[in-house]
Amino acid sequence: MQFGLEWHIPRRVLVLTVSGDVSLEELAQFNKAMLSHLEQGIPPVHLVSIGDNIRRVPTSIMLIKQTVTYLQHPNMGWTIIVQEKANPLTGFMVSVAAQATGMKMRQVKNASDGLETLARLDHSIAFPVSSV
Fold first, then answer.
1. Is 37 exposed, middle or buried (0-12, 13-18, 19+ CB in 10 A)?
2. Is the pLDDT of residue 57 over 80?
3. pTM value?
């Protein structure tokens, strides 16, 4: 898995770009990076996740829940999942993981829709927001 994690709106909105196969070890690396960003952020800190060509994902919901501890961080806000090319398995796993972890999540088709959705969910996000 390759991932990039950058502030889109400093200390408020993060953009994650991810591609390739996803392993639990890589999820742990991402989790560590997320925790660091959440500590630096101004709550609530939101995440826009843009997946491209994600082929394999871990299937054990319990292991995913144990690995992605950032979801329980008090600064964590909404997660917006962008899937331009919907992968049914990935979409299903994200939905199940969201339910299992209590993640506040929305799925959208593109990054623009994701940012608009986020602005509707949190009115404190200043617009205009440049495209991702």
1. buried
2. no
3. 0.85
